[in-house]
Amino acid sequence: MLELGVKFLVSYFIGSLMGALIVGKLRGGIDIRNMGSGNAGGTNALRTQGMGFALGVVIIDIGKGMLGAGVVPGLELPFIAADPAISRTWLALCCGAAAVFGHVWPIYYRFRGGKGAATLVGTFLVIAPGLLVPMLLVWAAVLILSGYVGLATMSAAVSLPVWIAITRLPAEQPLFIYCLVMAAFVIYWHWANIQRMRAGNENRNIKVMLFSRGRRANANDGS
Q: C-alpha angle with apex 30: 27 to 31, nearest 5 degrees?
């Protein structure tokens, strides 16, 4: 259990390195938590600072998930032997989750972080890269139909345990549990988005929608 506990903490500390705040510091001390939605993630970075800033944020945040799930579990730490009683699969899943938790509740930034989507994607790049295609398809479909990034993210997260239950159980039960737990957390972390959608105050990207009044109006203007 010592190995699990220490590597969980190491992954959490890595996850606590916020891409938005690192890039913001390099760009003159910009803190996007005081702008837009107040979220320290890629979407708010794109909305408030532009593509270049957001790309740097996403690269760092995805990288944290890859390090947490793919590198930390295999580290040979001094004075801490590998525990044969701990499944390597479960160790990778726990370390991946720790990196995501660090992103959402970063110890270095008074526990004010993002919503974990990019870091979660980073864990899947290591743990189960084959899940990225169905996840991205669901995310893109919901986004172009609704215009809501938060709804697309929640839908993509929920689709993963459903997909695994249909295609991979019972062989990959640990992965199913990981996806189910993380989907529940993604919904919890997006609860403010749900409330804003219900109130009609959520930011909506009409430009990417296939069917919208704004798009139809532009089409009519050009005809």
A: 145
Neighbours of 80 (CB within 10 A): 13
CB atoms within 10 A of CB 120: 29
pLDDT tens digits, one per residue of 145-179: 988 989 999 999 999 999 999 998 888 999 999 99
User: Do residues 110 and 42 touch, judged by C-beta distance below 8 A?
Assistant: no
148 three-state secondary structure: coil
| CA–CA gap between residue 218 and residue 36 (Å, rounded) | 26
pLDDT at 216: 46
Q: What is the DSSP letter of 110?
A: T
- Give Cα separations from 138 to 40, 111, 205, 216 (angstroms): 24, 30, 17, 24
- The residue with tokens 């993630």 is 41
Distance CA 31, CA 7 (A): 29
The model carries a pTM of 0.87
Total residues found in the chain within this entry = 223
Q: Which residues contact 134 (CB under 8 A, 6 or more apart)?
A: 159, 160, 163
Q: At residue 209, what are phi and psi to the nearest 5 degrees?
A: -80, 140
